[in-house]
Amino acid sequence: MATDLEYVRTSDSHPPVAIIDRSPMTPAKRIIFAVIGLVTATAWALVCFARGEHLNGAYFVIAAVGTYIIAYRFYARLIEYKVIRPKNDRATPGELYDNGRDFQPTDRRILFGHHFAAIAGAGPLVGPVLAIQMGFLPSFIWIVIGCVLAGAVQDYMTLWLSTRRKGRSLGQMIKDEMGKLGGVFGILGILFIMVMLIAVLGLIIVQALAHSPWGVFSIGCTIPIALFMGIYLRFLRPGKVAEVTVIGVALMLFAVVAGRWVAESAWGAQFFTLSSVTLAWCLIIYGFLASVLPVWLLLAPRDYLSTFMKVGTIVLLAVGVLIALPAVNAPALSDWGKGTATVAAPIFAGSLFPFLFITIACGALSGFHSLISSGTTPKMVEKESQIRIIGYGGMMIESFVAVMALVTAMNLDQHLYFAMNAPATLTGFVTDDAQTSAANAANWVCSLKELVPVPDCVNVATQTIYDTGVGVGEAGGVVSRTGGAPTLAVGMAHILSFLGGNAMKGFWYHFAIMFEALFILTTLDAGTRVCRFMLSDALSNLGGVFKKFSNPSWHVGAWGCSLLVVAGWGSILLMGVTDPLGGINTLYPLFGISNQLLAAIALTLITVVVIKKGLVKWAWIPGVGLIWDLVVTMAASWQKIFSPAQSLGYWAQHSCYVNAKAGIANGTVQAASQNAAGDNVFVFKSAAPDAVCSVTGSEAQINAVIRNTTVQGTLSIIFMVLVALVVLVGIWVAIKAIRAGSLPTTEEPDQPSHYYAPKSLFSTKAEKALTKEWAEYNAEHGVAVKTVQEGIDAVDEVPEGLDNDPDTPFS
Amino acid sequence: MSEKLLVHTQRFREQVLRAWRAVVWYVKGVMGESDYDTYCAHLRRRHPDEPLPTVSEYWRKRYADEDAHPSARCC
Touching check for A588 and chain B: CB below 8 Å? Predict the structure, then answer.
């Protein structure tokens, strides 16, 4: 055994800095992996073929976890062995530029938690919920397989690129590896995409909180709680982060409980029942303030709460799923998934390919992660071999969260699920009348031939929908609470009802809404701030009078940029909440497309670097994910731009409404009725034989749709063109590299490491022994360490040019 | 017999204590509470002549840094 271990030394004066373990798999391990493989395959078979009562959520968990283990052990190992080739005798940026602050080698287990808290959020919770429209099977397959072959690969390899480049940001690396032009397109793409992501995340909260006094109160409370925590940390007990977070979480749980009392009181119901437009404005003002207020006051404490809740709720959900063994009520492949449906898909338009992949987004592949993997995390890595568990492993947990969200949502009654997620135009939702809304929605869902028929459908569904609203403490009901978050919250309340029974359902529902909103608000605060820095940076690069923008303490510039960014996402958000066609339904595809396009940018960079390093043979590793992602996103963008189907193509929709407007103007379209507000409602259908257009609405609604589709259609084109340009530049660089055999990359030259840390979350025997040796050595040579590290001290301070990197937004 | 029991309880208590310490270490690490100690250790090792900041000074500086260099949080 011992002969298979090679100790790597960089100096004779201190212990070895790395262990290369060449020992083959022990027979015991082989047997364990064989058993895991068998169990996983069985679980997959059951998920794919067992139906009805033979199937429950636990099989999904087993199939997913087994696949992650096998993929991590074999596929990630292959990537490590063939492409990453970690050099553990090479100093990481954390070791080299150690400044005790952002550059700081951090224990791998802690960094894993850190990285996960930074990548995880509401995305993986929401996407799978919406995707169930197509059926659970394709959603589940994509969440697991997409993670293993694309998402985790992207996270892992971006982290690797950045770790070898002083922790540089994605935008900067694109510029370095693919030239200035590629860099400009890249930065522009990232900026647009982030604004879009923030807007849709904001829309999800607004949809969950509109007309929900309980929700508004408990989420509203997180702001004073965060302020209290900030002041506590600043003036009362500085540095007591864990303590104040525990206090904050306790206060937040109390706010969730108290929300019921407030919502049930007359004044509370009146004061906290807000329309979606009011809420959107609140969010916009909040977003602006959060981005200009000092970090210690609001952003940092909220981040602490969010980190704490992320780990807590995910564990809670996992335990809930394993105890409750939720039944599966969704079909494996719905009629919309098969493409045999007679009506357009109500939750998101379009066919399974490509829109399922767009919708699931973060749980399988998330471009946003590449911003995290090239930012904070690479500056804290201790050893290159650790990035496999942090990058690939972190994404596996994120994917697992998505699987649990899927399991939770597919447990819901299908009629309830569609009543909650379809837009108000279909369900007949009536504000502040839960009974009528439930009846209207029931009428609509029971008319869907795509759902499994139930006897006495309308009565049963009305009762289920109405009771669900009452059960979770929503006086306004749950009809058309689109966006995924409320659906997941109902599912969670259901699954966690073993804790406290029906009486606690309201608490669990609002607990789930609260943490989703918390995650989203954290993303929104931080995202706005990051965008603001990117924008001021981009402006300062224009030179001339704009140079001033590079000074972050120039308040006019900072506030102006914040205002611009907030105006960007705020206007999309307002557009979404007032959209007559249902904001989530029209905007969510743009959210998914933009996130997947960001992934395409990151995967292009990775593929280019792999080719430049002369590893063309292995370019398929990032290439598989890249090509699939490009096919999906380009097909989706194409359809969204060019599809002649009114429900699918933004411009098709646009021209329908333009025609309707023209018809009203020239008098060929007459008012058919009046709506509740007393406005004339027009009904327009394009002439036979194609009759593809059907428009019903007031003049104001028609104008709104014309405006919204213009913005949505234009954004689709911008996203698609920017990404296509980045990819084209990438192809051009790759061809040059293939012709030359290989090209120099901007990888930093190797510096010897004088530091040791184990590789995986759990140390091996040899690693433990070496860790102990280092501990003894450090204790003995407290001063001598310094002499050993003198070589490093020369570069101890972060070199000039790094601090001034244009990528400081992500530093 | 009772002595054996005593040893067992003792060992059990140690294990529980160890587990608790591990949890505290992990939570403080992920939340960033241990960063102050890490920074002081860094200063002592690399810049032994520089004075150590107080906890309050350290966090003020740290938040000021975060103000100037925000990091993204994902969806």
Answer: no
